[in-house]
């Protein structure tokens, strides 16, 4: 049976120069960190660049349900969205590196999606949600664009 | 990409930018303070975690230090700090030594009143526990699994999934608790429980069927669980060939699920079913069609990708989406657009293909070279499907060739044109005309040389050869040395192949005698002399015959020769004639993936290990020869005559993966078994393969070489050597058993246990067949050789290739069975031909040249292909032997 359970193979966030900010590899496909980074560079070169200074990538198997991966990226960004008014960028990620990594840890356990509801995740991580998030919809659509940019590599 | 911030941030100094590992390791002393400062400690933990996420590595000693320093933080009651401590311990548990020591603290936390403690302690525990101590914790695990709190229950279930690899027998005892968890209210718990239960029962097909059929009647609400269940249902349908429609009906009902992920999973599953009927596909395609016009790019992408795949096997089912696909050609996301185009090309028909090509031409300017290459490759496929449309195809390809573009794109395009020319003879003249125009201002000398070569080869055979000469001669007056040399040769070919022009050609060549380039002058002088002597035969050999050995091998041999020049001159007869497996001569170029696309990481990681040929660029045979020469036991065996392709003896997903290469020596057969241990909790020792021959009189067992230690994940080879009588080429089969000693390994530390036990593992039978003694060897003038070889000892046999329904497959089958090299481009049949003649040449391991001719014809019923196989060589016994491959 093709593997739905181990949805995520790799998760990484690169800056606008293609340098790694953080990364997590859930399968041993690469011998060492340098090979991982070379892979990230290759994908970055194929990514259409936009205005942001970070790009979030979730990589799954070629048989993976693309929308399941989109959910992962949505859960991640929606959870972190409440951190800063400016939304997610290199500064908020690094300023809140503890919350960023905890969020990732609560969403993915060894490649398996552990939780997907942003409110639940924020609660487990200890992010205090203040007020309503009016622009949630907008952020979703942004995230979809981003998800799409890595999905195409799965087709290769 | 999220447009989250537009500020220019180049000068901004980010936190942690210059974080240094050594400094952070020093900072960990705050963990030791008698009065623990939660904020300070949390910050240092963040630093450690960031270092790991950034890619810094820690040695075992460093990691152990950090791990144990952090255990001190269990004393603090600060909840945020505890959460960070858990993450730190979890991340370092796998690199640190003796992590198992924190077990007792974690067990205490497993019954703590705060859920966060219970959930996270269990997640760490599953990483450090080993199979022998797990039974003592069973009670805790079972309790956590059935907890109401979803955080704890999910953590316990997912941890149990991980533990299945370490201690499957223990985890399997928890099935009742897991079953209970499926009815938990939380979506995620449902999902994790279902996944674990399915995995527990995985090897019991009946139990899986029962589980799935009970759940599809129930009411799982979790979208993840529903997706998982759909995949289980597909598995049941495919593996049991059940007549029961309930499984399919469930998947179909999911098409109408409100959650897009579930609806999409259902649709793509139906599309992937092997025996889906057109009617069944229609409803799935209908859903995907809706997605095609979604405002969300991921949805459009997912749908078009699935339809693209479906179009390969079932183009008719995708036709209803034609219009929506056409709209996607201009999609702002280029991946979607490209997939749409290639899908359209796959489902196109004779009547709309012209319009389609036009439409694509219109937007060519917007896409980059990489996507153009994909388009060019799909267009090439079309030439096979719609040979009548060659004119449009050639014009389209030529447009790409003329536009700005990288060398890679242009080379792909030129290859595509050559492909069309090879397939459709009528296209030759129009293609040549276009290419003549192209070389007038071609920026890549490589391409010019290839085109000049083609013009020389095909031009003289067209209806009006004279018109090409002007284009070729222009190159002599305008271009660089390499191109001029190619042009001289090209012109000489016209003189050779088209007699009416010979005089004019001689005059043109005369003009090149004073060329400033040595190569051009040399070529001109040689050709001129031969023309004047009227030595057409020699001229023909020089101009038309290819070198008798593959170019790649020749190049490599020459390079080796130059590195260490020997006293004797270079001897071309010593160059290997074995053609690489990837040689385009096999004619399956269209189906192979282009090298331009990104390698999957898996392919990259494999390249280094068990496929020596790919990594080093030398031929597989040479690599094996070097590998075996390094083993002293084989030193006296003489030259390696032939190495077979890799034969898989297990499925690739099994515990131990075994493949075999058969090596033939003068008086020995050596079997090289490549063994990979895929279990991270086992270390194998003294691994060897016990082989039992089907006929023990034919071979005599000599010795075996075992693998002393086979750790998880590293492929190693063991060998068995048998002696064969001189001059004999036995064919027989072997039943095989992998034998070894197992030692349990703690996956967290990598330390093997003492002791261990002997174990054996069934692997598939291995056959030694005639092709194992045959080398591919090109024969440049097949027909002449064929006439020369004696007819009275040739072997003729006729047989039917059952269940092969077309000529292309028959060609592939014959080449595969004989392992010989196709000659005279006979591996390419006319499109839709119902008969064909295939010429093959090879060299038997004793050096005898062997030629075969296979005449084939599709049987009247259309269910098989009839073949008449003639084998010729100087040796009657070899003829019979080669034929016996089809006996």
From TrEMBL, chain A:
GO biological process: intra-Golgi vesicle-mediated transport; intracellular protein transport; retrograde vesicle-mediated transport, Golgi to endoplasmic reticulum
Subcellular location: Cytoplasm; Endomembrane system
Keyword Cytoplasm: yes
First-listed, main subcellular location of the protein, grouped into a coarse class: cytoplasm
Gene Ontology cellular component terms for the protein in this record: COPI vesicle coat
Annotated keywords: Cytoplasm, Membrane
Membrane topology label: Peripheral membrane protein
Residue stretches making up the AP complex mu/sigma subunit domain: 8-127
Pfam families associated with the record: Clat_adaptor_s
Assigned protein family: Belongs to the adaptor complexes small subunit family.
Protein name: Longin domain-containing protein
Lineage: Eukaryota, Amoebozoa, Evosea, Eumycetozoa, Dictyostelia
Gene: copZ1
Automatic annotation (TrEMBL), chain B:
Keyword check for Transport: yes
UniProt-listed GO biological process terms: endoplasmic reticulum to Golgi vesicle-mediated transport; intra-Golgi vesicle-mediated transport; intracellular protein transport; protein secretion
UniProt keyword terms in alphabetical order: Cytoplasm, Cytoplasmic vesicle, ER-Golgi transport, Golgi apparatus, Membrane, Protein transport, Repeat, Transport
Biased composition (Polar residues): 592-602
Region (Disordered): 585-612
InterPro entries, per database record: ARM-like, ARM-type_fold, Clathrin/coatomer_adapt-like_N, Clathrin_app_Ig-like_sf, Coatomer/calthrin_app_sub_C, Coatomer_g_Cpla, Coatomer_gsu, Coatomer_gsu_app_Ig-like_dom
Domain spans labelled Coatomer gamma subunit appendage Ig-like subdomain: 623-768
Subcellular location as annotated: Cytoplasm; Golgi apparatus membrane; Cytoplasmic vesicle, COPI-coated vesicle membrane
Clathrin/coatomer adaptor adaptin-like N-terminal domain span: 24-534
Membrane topology: Peripheral membrane protein
This protein's name: Coatomer subunit gamma
Main location: cytoplasm
Source organism of this protein record: Heterostelium pallidum (strain ATCC 26659 / Pp 5 / PN500)
């Amino acid at each position: 049976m093709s593997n739905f359970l181990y949805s995520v193979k790799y998760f990484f966030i690169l800056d606008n120069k293609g340098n790694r900010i953080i990364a997590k590899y859930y399968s041993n496909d690469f011998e060492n960190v340098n090979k991982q980074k070379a892979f990230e560079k290759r994908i970055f070169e194929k990514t259409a660049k936009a205005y942001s200074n970070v790009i979030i990538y979730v990589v799954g198997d070629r048989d993976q349900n693309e929308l399941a991966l989109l959910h992962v990226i949505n859960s991640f960004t929606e959870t972190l969205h409440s951190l800063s008014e400016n939304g997610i960028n290199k500064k908020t990620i690094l300023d809140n590196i503890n919350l960023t990594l905890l969020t990732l840890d609560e969403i993915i356990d060894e490649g398996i999606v552990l939780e997907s509801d942003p409110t639940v995740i924020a609660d487990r991580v200890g992010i205090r949600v203040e007020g309503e998030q009016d622009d949630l919809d907008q952020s979703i659509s942004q995230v979809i664009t981003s998800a799409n940019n890595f999905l195409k590599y799965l087709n290769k | 990409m999220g447009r989250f911030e537009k500020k220019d941030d180049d000068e901004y100094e980010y936190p942690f930018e210059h974080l240094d590992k050594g400094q952070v390791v020093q900072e960990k002393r705050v963990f030791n303070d008698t009065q623990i400062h939660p904020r300070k400690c949390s910050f240092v933990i963040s630093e450690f975690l960031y270092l790991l996420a950034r890619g810094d590595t820690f040695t075992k000693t460093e990691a152990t230090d950090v791990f144990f320093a952090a255990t001190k933080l269990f004393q603090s009651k600060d909840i945020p700090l505890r959460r960070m401590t858990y993450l730190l311990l979890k991340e370092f548990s796998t690199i640190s030594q003796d992590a198992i020591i924190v077990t007792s603290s974690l067990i205490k936390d497993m019954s703590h009143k705060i859920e966060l403690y219970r959930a996270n302690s269990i997640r760490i525990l599953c990483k450090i526990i080993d199979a022998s101590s797990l039974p003592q914790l069973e009670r805790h695990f079972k309790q956590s699994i059935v907890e109401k709190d979803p955080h704890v229950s999910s953590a316990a279930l997912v941890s149990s999934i991980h533990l299945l690899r370490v201690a499957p027998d223990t985890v399997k005892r928890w099935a009742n608790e897991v079953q209970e968890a499926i009815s938990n209210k939380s979506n995620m718990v449902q999902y994790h429980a279902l996944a674990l239960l399915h995995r527990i029962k995985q090897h019991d097909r009946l139990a899986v069927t029962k589980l799935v059929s009970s759940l599809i009647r129930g009411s799982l609400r979790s979208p993840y669980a529903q997706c998982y269940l759909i995949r289980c249902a597909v598995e049941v349908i495919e593996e049991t060939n059940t007549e029961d429609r309930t499984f399919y009906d469930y998947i179909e009902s999911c098409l109408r699920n409100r959650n897009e992920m579930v609806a999409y999973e259902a649709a793509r599953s139906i599309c992937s079913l092997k025996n889906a009927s057109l009617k069944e596909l229609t409803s799935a395609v209908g859903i995907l069609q809706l997605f095609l016009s979604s405002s969300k790019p991921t949805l459009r992408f997912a749908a078009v990708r699935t339809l693209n795949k479906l179009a390969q096997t079932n183009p008719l089912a995708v036709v209803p989406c034609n219009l929506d696909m056409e709209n996607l050609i201009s999609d702002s996301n280029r991946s979607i657009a490209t997939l749409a185009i290639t899908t359209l090309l796959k489902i196109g028909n004779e009547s709309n293909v012209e319009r389609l090509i036009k439409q694509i031409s219109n937007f060519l300017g917007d896409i980059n070279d990489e996507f153009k290459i994909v388009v060019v490759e799909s267009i090439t496929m079309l030439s096979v499907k719609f040979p009548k449309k060659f004119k449009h195809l050639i014009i389209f390809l030529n447009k790409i060739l003329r536009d700005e573009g990288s060398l890679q794109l242009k080379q792909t395009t030129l290859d595509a044109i050559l492909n069309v020319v090879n397939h459709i003879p009528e296209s030759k003249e129009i293609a040549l005309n276009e290419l003549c125009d192209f070389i007038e201002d071609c920026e890549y000398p490589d391409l010019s040389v290839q085109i000049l070569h083609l013009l020389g080869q095909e031009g003289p055979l067209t209806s009006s050869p004279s018109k090409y000469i002007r284009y070729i001669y222009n190159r002599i007056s305008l271009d660089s040395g390499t191109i001029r040399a190619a042009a001289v040769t090209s012109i000489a070919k016209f003189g050779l192949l088209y007699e009416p022009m010979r005089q004019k050609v001689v005059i043109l060549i005369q003009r090149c005698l004073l060329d400033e380039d040595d190569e051009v002058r040399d070529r001109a002088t040689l050709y001129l002399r031969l023309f004047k002597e009227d030595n057409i035969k020699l001229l023909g050999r020089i101009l038309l015959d290819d070198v008798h050995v593959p170019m790649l091998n020749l190049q490599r041999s020459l390079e080796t020769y130059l590195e260490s020049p020997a006293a004797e001159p270079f001897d071309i007869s010593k160059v290997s004639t074995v053609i690489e497996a990837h040689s385009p001569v096999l004619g399956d170029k269209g189906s192979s993936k282009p090298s331009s696309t990104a390698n999957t990481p898996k392919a990259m990681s494999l390249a280094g290990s068990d496929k020596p040929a790919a990594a080093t660029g030398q031929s597989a045979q040479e690599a094996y020869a070097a590998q075996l020469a390094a083993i002293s036991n084989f030193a006296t065996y003489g030259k390696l005559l032939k190495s077979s392709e890799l034969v898989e003896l297990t499925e690739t997903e099994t515990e131990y993966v075994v493949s075999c290469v058969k090596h033939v020596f003068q008086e020995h057969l050596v079997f090289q078994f490549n063994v990979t241990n895929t279990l991270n909790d086992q270390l194998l020792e003294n691994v060897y393969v016990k082989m039992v021959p089907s006929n023990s009189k034919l071979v005599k067992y000599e010795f075996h070489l075992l693998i002393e230690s086979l750790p998880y994940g590293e492929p190693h080879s063991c060998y068995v050597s048998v002696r064969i009588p001189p001059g004999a080429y036995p064919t027989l089969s072997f039943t095989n058993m992998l034998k070894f000693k197992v030692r349990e390994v703690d996956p967290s530390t990598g330390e093997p246990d003492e002791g261990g036990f002997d174990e054996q593992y069934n692997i598939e039978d291995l056959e030694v067949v005639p092709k194992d003694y045959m080398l591919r060897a090109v024969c440049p003038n097949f027909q002449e050789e064929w006439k020369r070889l004696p007819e009275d000892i040739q072997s003729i046999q006729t047989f039917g290739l059952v269940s092969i329904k077309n000529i292309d497959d028959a060609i592939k089958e014959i080449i595969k069975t004989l392992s010989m090299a196709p000659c005279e481009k006979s591996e390419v049949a006319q499109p839709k031909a119902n008969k064909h003649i295939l010429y093959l040449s090879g060299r038997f391991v004793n050096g005898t040249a062997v030629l075969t001719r296979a005449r084939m014809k599709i049987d009247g019923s259309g269910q098989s292909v009839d073949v008449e196989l003639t084998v010729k060589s100087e040796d009657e016994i070899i003829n019979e032997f080669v034929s016996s491959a089809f006996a």
